[in-house]
């Protein structure tokens, strides 16, 4: 596999993810998550927004000092004070990055109340300043997917000439769709002078539930950095979920022949830790990391799973850090699953015994949502005590 197909994973759980209302993490929790991200093999950790608060500054500085492998990035608006503060925090890293941005769409241009020319000058000035401090500068035209085409090309060219090394294309309000996401990236790469010298990144929000599809479409069109968060944590409907894009490229490598540096076996642990420290529980049917993502209750599925897991699973649970598939015992379960579960619990039953226990099990399952191992042990005890 050539390096041309290596996709950088930029995790922004600690910045965009933490911006989610109510998801605030403590200093110690941020250090723990950054460490897990580093161990998992993400390429860039966006550790926070240093000028936002003393706490953010302290967290980004310490993450910069502790991180062994990943590049550590901080966010800065398009002004000198933000960029200086960001540099003060990230400069301790082995590999620091400054990420500076400004809203370029007609709506977002009204916020600083700059004309198009004034904004272009501001971009030139701030990216130049960032590049004088740091060799690794990322620039983002916020709300890129609602920015006029000509203006988008113009400001990206300015940022590249001023020294940006990564150009991120944010779909800030989750507005784009896969085909449009792909065409935007490929046209920018073809059109903007100097585009071949920088990495193009995709940063998608999930307002219409298309963040993963839009990110993968952008990669197919030439983007080589995906910005994402664990569990898709993020403002409103969240950001692209790291576990989804990484597992999609691994599982469908036949049609998406891209690689990442992520050790996918660490996904489940970090997902659980992010859920615990952010207070944002993962929905049971969430792709990859939901409680039911590798669980089966219906008799037909359980029987199929026992014969060959590939019948109903496209990924191996071990590949995301789960010990095994979970055959959930409930009213939809069949005899094969009951026998297998009882074998696991140490019971070997003849066919006539199993038939009797199966009737008792179904009665119990009609009363309970889920039948746990302890329930089955009690049921076996009752069955052996009855004459
Ligand atoms: O969604 C967005 O536009 C952002 C930028 C700061 C990159 O998070
Ligand atoms: Zn964002």
Automatic annotation (TrEMBL):
Keyword annotations of the record: Amino-acid biosynthesis, Branched-chain amino acid biosynthesis, Cytoplasm, Leucine biosynthesis, Manganese, Metal-binding, Transferase
Keyword Ion transport: no
Coiled coil (UniProt feature): none
Subunit structure: Homodimer.
Catalytic activity: 3-methyl-2-oxobutanoate + acetyl-CoA + H2O = (2S)-2-isopropylmalate + CoA + H(+)
Similarity annotation: Belongs to the alpha-IPM synthase/homocitrate synthase family. LeuA type 1 subfamily.
Cofactor(s) needed for function: Mn(2+)
Biological process terms in GO annotation: L-leucine biosynthetic process
EC number(s) on file: 2.3.3.13
GO cellular component: cytosol
A single GO molecular function term of this UniProt record: manganese ion binding
Free-text function comment from the UniProt entry: Catalyzes the condensation of the acetyl group of acetyl-CoA with 3-methyl-2-oxobutanoate (2-ketoisovalerate) to form 3-carboxy-3-hydroxy-4-methylpentanoate (2-isopropylmalate).
Binding site for Mn(2+): 16, 203, 205, 239
Protein name: 2-isopropylmalate synthase
Chain ranges of the Pyruvate carboxyltransferase domain: 7-268
Group of enzyme by EC: transferase
Pathway(s) served: Amino-acid biosynthesis; L-leucine biosynthesis; L-leucine from 3-methyl-2-oxobutanoate: step 1/4
């Amino acid at each position: 596999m050539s390096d041309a197909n290596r996709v950088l994973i930029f995790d922004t759980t600690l910045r965009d993810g933490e911006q989610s209302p109510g998801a605030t993490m403590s200093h110690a929790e941020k250090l723990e998550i950054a460490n897990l991200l580093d161990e998992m093999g993400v390429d860039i950790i966006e550790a926070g927004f240093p000028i936002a608060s003393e706490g953010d500054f302290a967290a980004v500085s310490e993450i910069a000092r502790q991180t062994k492998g990943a590049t550590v990035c901080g966010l800065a608006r398009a002004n000198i004070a933000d960029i200086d503060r960001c540099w003060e925090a990230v400069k301790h890293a082995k590999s620091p990055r400054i990420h500076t941005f400004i809203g370029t769409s007609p709506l977002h241009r009204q916020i600083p109340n700059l004309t198009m020319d004034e904004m272009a000058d501001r971009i030139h000035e701030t990216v130049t300043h960032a590049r004088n401090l740091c060799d690794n500068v990322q620039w983002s035209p916020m709300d890129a997917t609602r920015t006029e085409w000509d203006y988008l090309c113009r400001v990206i060219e300015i940022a590249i000439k001023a020294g940006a090394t990564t150009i991120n294309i944010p779909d800030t309000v989750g507005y784009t769709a896969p085909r449009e996401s792909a065409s935007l990236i490929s046209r920018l790469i073809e059109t903007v002078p100097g585009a071949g010298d920088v990495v193009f990144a995709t940063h998608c929000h999930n307002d219409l539930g298309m963040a993963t599809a839009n990110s993968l479409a952008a990669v197919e069109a030439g983007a080589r950095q995906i910005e994402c968060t664990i569990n898709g944590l993020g403002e409103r409907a969240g950001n692209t979920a790291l576990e989804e894009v990484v597992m999609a490229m691994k599982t469908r490598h036949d049609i998406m022949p891209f690689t990442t540096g992520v050790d996918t076996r660490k996904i489940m642990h970090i997902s659980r830790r992010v859920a615990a420290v952010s207070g944002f529980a993962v929905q049971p049917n969430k792709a990859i990391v939901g409680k039911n993502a590798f669980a089966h209750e219906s008799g037909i599925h359980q029987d199929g799973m026992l014969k060959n897991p590939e019948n109903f699973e496209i990924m191996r649970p071990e590949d995301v850090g789960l010990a095994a598939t979970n055959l959930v015992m409930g009213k939809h379960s069949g005899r094969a699953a009951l026998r297998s579960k009882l074998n696991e619990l140490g019971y070997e039953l003849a066919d006539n015994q199993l038939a009797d226990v199966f009737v008792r099990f179904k009665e119990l399952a009609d009363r309970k949502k889920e039948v746990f191992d302890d329930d089955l042990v009690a049921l076996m005890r009752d069955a052996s005590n009855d004459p």
